[in-house]
Design brief:
Helices cover 29% and strands 15% of the residues. It has 5 helices and 7 strands. Helix 3 runs parallel beside helix 4 and helix 4 runs antiparallel to helix 5.
């Protein structure tokens, strides 16, 4: 269980580029050739957690919980199973908002603009891992939790705009809710098949 110690505005949030440079250095705690973990330590926020490969499935949740390299929670274990069963060689867990909080109700009430800005830099970096000629595969997987905070819709809007610039293909797995929210990764069979997800149309339902 991770309960935020304070609002992220009271923290010294590192820039994504600085955190990435630190993450690429050798570590005693885990193999940086296998894992991408940014920042590369357990903190009150997380930009990226995933495995390295040439063809990752990028899963988008709402906010990070306790997972870290070598200690995946049940959500991340499910994400990895679905990714590998679907022909991807790796997975990346990303989030609409970067603050750690196991219970979404513990997320801060106001969006930290700096944290969000650096998180969007991280998202652009993740999409660029595919390189030219390849369209990133982005899995919408946040469930109904996106309704927990009003600012999450605007954060997602920025992500969708970046995805359009990078040519991302959006998918969902499993049944969607009555309001059209994409299914959370938990309780999905590993052989579940993806369906195209119209992120821009979905966004309009959130902001209507």
């Amino acid at each position: 269980m991770h309960i935020p110690k304070s609002a992220t505005l009271s923290l010294s949030v590192k820039k994504f580029d600085e955190s990435l440079n630190e993450a690429l250095l050798p570590k005693d705690e885990y193999d940086v050739e296998r894992w991408l973990f940014v920042p590369p330590m357990y903190d009150e926020y997380r930009y990226i957690l995933g495995t390295r490969g040439d063809n990752p499935l990028i899963c988008i949740g709402i906010n990070p919980s306790t997972a870290k390299p070598g200690a995946l929670d049940n959500t991340l274990k499910s994400v990895e199973r679905v990714a590998l069963a679907g022909g991807y060689d790796s997975f990346i867990m990303f989030n609409v908002y970067a603050q750690r909080a196991t219970r979404p109700d513990d997320m801060e009430k106001q969006c930290n603009a700096r944290l969000h800005r650096e998180n969007m830099k991280a998202f652009a970096y993740v999409l660029d891992l595919y390189g030219k000629g390849h369209r990133p595969a982005v899995w919408a997987a946040w469930g109904t939790i996106i309704e927990k905070r009003p600012y999450l819709a605007s954060c997602l809007a920025d992500m969708i705009a970046i995805g359009e610039q990078k040519g991302a293909n959006w998918y969902s797995y499993g049944p969607r809710s009555k309001k059209g929210h994409p299914h959370h990764p938990l309780y999905l069979r590993k052989d579940v098949t993806p369906e195209p997800f119209d992120a821009a149309a979905y966004l309009k339902t959130l902001t209507a």
